Amino acid sequence: MTKPVVAILGRPNVGKSTLFNRIVGQRKAIVEDLPGTTRDRIYGEGVWQDREFSLIDTGGYELQPATDIRRRVKEQVALAIQEADVLLFVVDGQEGVVPADIETAELLRRSGKPVLLAVNKLDNPRKKTDALVFYELGIGDPVPMSAHHGQGTADLLDRMVELLPPSPPPTPGQEVMMKLAIVGRPNVGKSLLLNTLLGKERAIVSEVPGTTRDAIDTVLETVEGKVLLIDTAGIRRAGHIERGVEKYSVMRAMDAVDRCDIALLVTDVEEILPAQDTHIAGYIKKAAKSLIVVVNKWDLAPGVDRDELNAEILDRLKFFPPLPVLFVSALTGEGVDRILPAARQVYAERQKRVPTGLLNGIIKDAVASHPAPTVKGRKLKILYVTQAEVNPPTFVFFINDEKLRHFSYDRYLENKLRAAFGFMGTPLRFIFKARREE
Ligand code: GDP
Ligand code: GDP
Asked: Is residue 54 part of a domain?
């Protein structure tokens, strides 16, 4: 399940974050409409030649802000060596070899881990030969590239994939399926949306019995893997729903949420997120399921400003982490083909596993720049943090005393984790365990 980890390292300003964004960029673009997603992240998911990997930008990892650059680089190198399967060492081709690069190269060589040397900022293809001087570092063939213009990155990724550890063979019968539930009030267009979605996807569709007596699930076999759509029988029986059944349908929606990874909350552009919807969203959060809001009947709102509406929706769902909002018309089909890619993106966020060293580094930094409040002369201490689970991402904090916790500080720590690692649309679970201090 865990993907191989690739760490980008090198001196400040050589172009690490530019390269990082280029590699994880295509995936990020899917949800770029969402405010708050373009902020700097240091952890992302990449895919090349069908190989998936996690990418760490050690440059975005602010160690003790006061420490000098040399020590910082050293710490980053140590971190990268500890966490990564492949080290992507970036140098500045315009500056040539500098002493810090030689020092870093020495540490990397000693680590015994596979290293790939990227010589960046060679924007002019005729300057490719400027990369040759970096043979001096003694860590193999330098790859000339320009992260800014995208030249040479394909070649770089080809070589990187060769250095990844072999992927484990798939375990038969244990295939993980992304599970989606389509929920929302009657008449918002769920059944038409489902039918439009099924019509658009070039997928094999089959129906399987759900868990309750009359529930029917739908399995979509797409080239990107299987997707389970939960309890679609109730949805596909399109048409009028009587009043008496409405309460029943809410219970049914909750049952669908319990079984899903991601809930697609469909709402009508003519009545955006009334209380009933926010209640469902609250339930989705409590169940620690991911959420995507689908604003349907977009064809009925030609004059509406998307960005404004987007902001309004996120504001109304403030209690939920930042999440994707899609604008679609089940009737015309507009936007419907963005639903599954967005769901896959969020699913990847749910499956994300943060390396322990990196996690503790981020939390340590967070505590250093904003210490926990003191209660009756005593201060909350976080001894150690580890990610115990994915789907939902669950973090265990070992602390000195449960009584010293405060929800506002929990939220602060959560925001720091999100700033570094994303977790788009996905609630995080925090578990606190008291440990006596040594
Ligand atoms: P980091 O500190 O290593 O993460 O470096 P950044 O990615 O922030 O880049 C530092 C500066 O170098 C920025 O001004 C970038 O625009 C610039 N830069 C990054 N890649 C290239 C490149 O391929 N060519 C050129 N000319 N500039 C680049
Ligand atoms: P459900 O109860 O949520 O499953 O909603 P339905 O799929 O039965 O749709 C309710 C009504 O809204 C039907 O008359 C649909 O034709 C209409 N409808 C659904 N989606 C759209 C849309 O995108 N645009 C417009 N104009 N009407 C829609």
From this structure: yes
The residue segments making up the domain with residue 245 are: 178-350
Centre of ligand 2 to C-alpha 192, Å, is 6
CA 291 to CA 49: how far, in whole Å? 29
- Structurally, the chain folds into a number of domains equal to 3
For the Cβ of 186 lying below 6 angstroms from any atom of ligand 2, the answer is yes
Is pLDDT of 35 > 50?
no
Query: Whole-model pTM above 0.85?
Result: no
Rounded-to-integer distance, Cα 17 and Cα 147, Å: 9
Is the CB of 200 inside a 6 Å radius of any atom of ligand 1? no
pLDDT of residue 224: 84
Ligand 2 atom closest to the Cα of residue 186 is 2
18 lines ligand 1 (CB under 6 A): yes
Measured from the alpha carbon of residue 42, the closest ligand is 1
Distances in Å between the alpha carbon of 415 and those of 362, 410, 419? 11, 9, 6
The predicted-structure confidence for 90-117, as pLDDT tens digits, reads as follows 999 999 999 989 999 999 999 999 999 9
The pLDDT value recorded for residue 376 is: 85
Distance 241 CA to ligand 1 centre (A): 57
Q: In the numeric block, which tokens belong to residue 85? A: 């399967």
- The pLDDT score that the predictor gives to residue 429 is 95
Contact 294 CB / ligand 2 (< 6 Å): no
200 and 297 share one domain: yes
> In the numeric block, which tokens belong to residue 180?
């989606």
How does pLDDT run across 181-226, given as a tens digit for each residue? 999 988 899 989 999 998 887 777 888 877 666 778 899 988 888 9
Residue 18, phi-psi category: left (phi > 0), alpha (psi -120 to 50), beta (remainder): alpha
Look at residues 300, 322, 350 and tell me which one is the last residue of a structural domain: 350
